[in-house]
């Protein structure tokens, strides 16, 4: 039997969400979280790309640092997507959507280790600014769980930004 022949329609059940956050408030927070999820995914891919393709004397340190970071990003993606679900919305999960809603530019090819570090620094800083906006919105709506999540992620990315800045500075 082909997929088309199967009747996959099931009855839709909408269970009202009554956690004390308004629907409008939740929708506004999720708009920010969608962008942050997309930023995380695209930054994870770029970090992985540079992990594979870095060359030269900085290879070992760059290869190791990018590995720690893409592993952290992978875990965070799941947490952010599940927060979106807990707020009552579907989480976006396709590259097409991610590239439409995120401003993180894709990895460049043929660049030096220092240029990769500068590119990663700029992406982390971009993400940090977006997370500050998300945190402010969550705070305005008294969504402490999202405030907590954003605070935790901000500390990780500010640390990553510091590391990439130090990688470049002399
Ligand atoms: Fe690896």
UniProtKB/TrEMBL annotation:
Instruction: Give the GO molecular function terms.
Output: ferric iron binding; oxidoreductase activity, acting on metal ions
Domain Ferritin/DPS: where?
A: 31-169
Q: Which domain of life is it from?
A: Bacteria
Q: Which family does it belong to?
A: Belongs to the Dps family.
Name of the protein in question = DNA starvation/stationary phase protection protein
Origin organism of this chain?
A: Croceimicrobium hydrocarbonivorans
């Amino acid at each position: 039997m082909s997929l088309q022949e199967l009747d996959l329609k099931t009855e839709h059940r909408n269970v009202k969400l009554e956690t004390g956050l308004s629907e409008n408030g939740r929708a506004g927070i999720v708009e920010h979280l969608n962008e942050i999820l997309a930023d995380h995914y695209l930054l994870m891919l770029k970090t992985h790309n540079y992990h594979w393709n870095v060359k030269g004397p900085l290879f070992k340190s760059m290869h190791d640092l990018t590995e720690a970071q893409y592993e952290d990003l992978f875990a965070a993606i799941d947490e952010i997507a599940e927060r979106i679900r807990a707020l009552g919305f579907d989480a976006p999960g396709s590259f097409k959507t991610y590239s439409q809603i995120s401003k993180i530019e894709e990895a460049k090819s043929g660049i030096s280790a220092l240029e990769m570090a500068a590119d990663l620094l700029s992406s982390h800083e971009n993400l940090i600014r977006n997370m500050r906006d998300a945190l402010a919105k969550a705070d305005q709506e008294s969504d402490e769980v999202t405030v907590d999540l954003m605070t935790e992620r901000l500390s990780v990315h500010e640390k990553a930004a510091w590391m990439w800045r130090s990688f470049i500075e002399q």
